[in-house]
Design goal:
single chain, Jelly Rolls, Rossmann fold, 4 domains, 42% strand, elongated
């Protein structure tokens, strides 16, 4: 050990040294004592502490170094210092600095082998006025940063001796060189400087020996499945998560401005599920999960956020009596609507009703589903009557609309209707229009259903079949209890392509293999979710995916399932740990198949039903690992594991357009695995070298990739 200062002994501008040279302090710096713990409190304005104006007058490490500190930052800084001897002036960079960049602790150093300061950052975001044990080491080869006894970052760009400037200040609690002086608002309890690199085991023991003396922040709450939020209704959000241990929890939530804090409690369980009630629309909220561990140990998640304006379902149905009463005709219509919904399996999107039938069928479909109902009625008087009735029910202009016009020349673009029915056929026994050509033009491919029924009338099965055939479609007809029902369900649009992976498909060709799109294009639809939920494009975020007529759009910790043909937002899914950026140096965190979206959230990969967003299954990575690259096809879910916390997240406005390590480091995986996507059962695993995620490519049942077998890569604290 070269130097050690215990700041509780500071007095009259002098900080005595237990070992080495004494230090000085000035300005409004004071020695404060709270709960038996003393510190030198620097205010960040006119106070400072320093060892020497010229570091050459004291001993300093040359070949290796450890800087250890117990500190309590009071505020974030772009460039914060704890202890250092530094010159960082343009291209001239020398010395070393233990400090913090915004809210992450860092260790910077220049060496003979790399004559530039590299600011190695940890992963912890410090909380103001909490105590932390921060250590930076360099052994002549590897730079490391530790926070509260745990290794949080390594870097192997350096080699050889530390290189110092000819002259510089040896500063404590601040960042100072010849042209910059950033005074820290920070509490200092102890700082030590060694001329050797302490081991990870030794640092962990030193932290454990003294941690009970300090009011440390709560230990991070470890999730095996991070929080996932889904709308129950317009004013209720369900939050689910899974923890490594069964602990009693408190869920605290409040408005983003800190007001109206509420608490929900739940008994000890690994799997937790709570519902936030009475949420107002269009508000930003914060929430945090806290758990009580053994003894006095507390665990807490970060403060996460959600926004209640990101709700895209139809407005809730008003509670009003039926304007039609309960006559015999209405009972038949109710039964028909139930049959249509059950047999078509469609309850979201748009339903086109040809012929108003007084608005009866439109009313029942709007009442029993989340469909947006569009009625086309040729007769002016009947159209007006249907509008009045639906308005009386509180549905008109909200869940239903009536357009007066010909059913043979519909004023809509192609593919907009998920479901097409006929009210006039149901009641009057008359087919809508001369044939089914217009109906088929506006019916959505990939699951769109036309279902026309006759409750009474003279039409025959042959009449239905001929009517559809003239429109270019084949229907199936069923007869039951005097009723006739004709049904057409469309498959995928022939020649249409999908975009299921980050670069189109597993072979990374950036080609959807679509044979239809060419020449001039027009707008099919426009609408939600819009730009507000989206992160800055500069972060190089995961591409939206498209499969089987659906799109999957990832925003900032929020995911949307959208009907690709008409823009209906099918579902919304929030998760605070769901974020990935810098795609050129990593792989996307989601992949789609015809019926499932797979998305990774830290160490869990969840399978979401493509239509509903409901969770089907989950596959967990090994302890200490997150899921990285993903691919899915042919009964396989292929994935790669990275060290926890390795993925880029672009939370500080990064664009990754520089040439520094923080922009261009490639994320590498230490294992490739194949799982059954339905059961989550592992099928095989490959563990060779460090696989570069951005090179993983699949073609003709073979996986191609670049890997490094350099053993030094495995020593890194992260997978970058």
């Amino acid at each position: 050990m070269l130097h050690q200062w215990r700041f509780d002994q500071a007095k009259d501008g002098v900080i005595p040294a237990k070992v080495g040279a004494p230090a000085k302090f000035s300005g409004t710096a004071i020695v404060a004592k709270e709960d038996g713990l003393s510190r030198l409190q620097l205010k960040g304005t006119d106070s400072r502490a320093w060892v020497a104006d010229d570091f050459n007058t004291v001993k300093v490490p040359k070949q290796a170094i450890t800087v250890e500190a117990w500190v309590s930052p009071a505020a974030l800084m772009r460039w914060g210092g704890i202890a250092g001897i530094i010159q960082d002036n343009g291209d001239y960079e020398r010395g070393w600095l233990l400090g913090y960049v915004n809210r992450k602790f860092s260790f910077a150093l220049a060496s003979e082998g790399h004559k530039r300061l590299t600011y190695l950052q940890g992963t912890t975001d410090f909380q103001d006025n909490r105590w932390y044990h921060v250590v930076g080491t360099y052994d002549g080869d590897t730079l490391c940063v530790y926070v509260n006894g745990k290794l949080e970052g390594t870097e192997m760009a350096h080699s050889g001796s530390i290189i110092y400037p000819p002259k510089a200040t040896f500063e404590l609690g601040g960042y100072k060189d010849d042209n910059e002086f950033y005074r820290g608002a920070i509490g200092l309890h102890e700082i030590s400087v060694y001329e050797k690199a302490l081991s990870a085991e030794g640092i962990a023991k030193r932290f454990a020996a003294r941690k009970n003396e300090f009011p440390l922040p709560p230990e991070p709450l470890r999730f095996t499945s991070p929080p996932q939020l889904r709308w129950e209704n317009r004013s209720s959000l369900k939050i689910e998560w899974e923890m490594a241990s069964a602990l009693p929890v408190e869920l605290k939530w409040k408005r983003a401005d800190g007001t109206q804090e509420k608490v929900l409690k739940s008994p000890a369980s690994r799997m937790q599920k709570l519902v936030l009630l009475d949420l107002p629309p269009d508000g930003e909220f914060l929430y945090r999960i806290e758990a009580q561990g053994g003894g006095r140990t507390k665990h807490a998640s970060p403060w996460y956020k959600f926004d209640t304006s990101f709700y895209y379902r139809l407005p809730d149905q008003p509670k009003r009596p039926s304007p039609f009463g309960n006559d015999g005709t209405m009972q038949l219509v109710q039964s028909a609507a139930k049959r249509i919904i059950t047999e078509s399996g469609i309850s979201q999107g748009y339903v086109l009703v040809l012929g108003s039938a007084e608005g009866r069928l439109a009313y029942e479909l709007a009442r029993q589903t989340d469909l947006q109902v569009v009625v086309v009625e040729p007769n002016v008087e009947k159209a007006q009557a249907a509008r009045r009735t639906l308005n009386q029910a509180g549905l008109y202009g909200i869940r239903a609309s009536v357009h007066q016009g010909s059913v043979s020349e519909l004023p809509y673009g192609p593919y907009f209707a998920n479901l097409i029915v006929s009210g006039s056929l149901l009641i009057d026994g008359k087919l809508p229009g001369k044939d089914a050509s217009e109906l088929m033009r506006v019916l959505r491919p990939a699951g769109g259903v036309a279902m026309l029924g006759q409750l009474k009338g003279s039409l025959t099965q042959a009449d239905f079949e001929e009517w559809f055939k003239r429109g270019g479609a084949n229907c199936t007809v069923s007869a039951e209890a005097g009723q006739l029902w004709a049904k057409v369900e469309l498959g995928k649009l022939e020649g249409a392509g999908d975009w299921t992976h980050q670069y189109g498909s597993p072979d990374n060709t950036t080609n959807s293999r679509d044979d239809l799109v060419r020449g001039e294009m027009g707008i099919l639809w426009w609408g939600e979710p819009g730009p507000r939920p989206m992160p800055d494009r500069g972060g190089r975020n995961p591409a939206p995916l498209a499969a089987n007529g659906r799109m999957f759009i990832q925003g900032d910790r929020v995911l949307f399932g959208v009907d690709a043909y008409n823009g209906t937002v099918l579902w919304t899914f929030f998760s605070p740990e769901m974020r990935r950026s810098n795609m050129p140096r990593d792989g996307s965190n989601m992949v789609a198949t015809d019926d499932t979206l797979f998305v990774t959230i830290g160490g869990v990969c969840i399978a979401l039903d493509a239509q509903t967003g409901q969770r089907r299954a989950a596959v967990h990575a090994a302890k200490g690992r997150d899921w990285g690259w993903l691919s899915a096809s042919k009964g396989q879910l292929l994935s790669a594991t990275v060290k926890s916390g390795s993925s880029y997240k672009a939370d500080s406005g990064e664009w990754y357009d520089g040439v520094g390590a923080g922009d261009v480091q490639r994320v590498v995986s230490d294992a490739l695995l194949s799982h059954n996507p339905a059961t989550g059962k592992e099928q095989w695993a490959y563990r060779g070298g460090a696989v570069m995620n951005s090179t993983l490519t699949i073609a003709e049942d073979t996986i191609y990739f670049v890997e490094s077998r350099n053993p030094d890569v495995a020593k890194s604290a992260t997978s970058r």
